[in-house]
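Task card 7
Instruction: Convert sequence to structure tokens.
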Amino acid sequence: MKPFAPILAALGIVFVSAAGAPAQSPVAPATQSADALPTEDFVRMVAIGDMFEIQSSKMAVDKARDETVKRFARMMIEAHQKTSAELKSTVEAAQIKAQIPSTLDQAHKLKLDQLRSAAGDRFDATYGAMQVEAHQQAITVFENYARAGADAKLKEWAEATLPTLKQHLEEASKLRREAQPSRS
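Output:
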């Protein structure tokens, strides 16, 4: 199994062959280290993560009970729209041959469904927990690519984005602690 498979599994990403059966993970180019996340996978993961952040946060602006959650959600929408634009421009400028997806994968669609079905304090707590998980996963993916990715411009961007992701994780962790549903 490829060393990056645990990262893919943590993000709920499964490669599927044309026949619908799980496929082998793509082979990393010879110029990459053996433990590097392939550029195409990094681009796809970041794009899907940003889409999930934006969509779940738009839902939180509408459904959250706590104003702190709504404020955090607005910040996430703005931040992830920015990283989406930066990803696209970096991919184009570096002429990276990677497809930027325009829809969520199944795992993230299921998370949005879970959020849709939550209400009140339960929504706030679920959103907070999902934000912590999403940012932990994003940090892992960005650190991997910044350390061992194949494209220099994308590595530089990943490295430059990490402090913001870590700040978001810290704020999401605080939000999760504060948004625990009452047990009364």
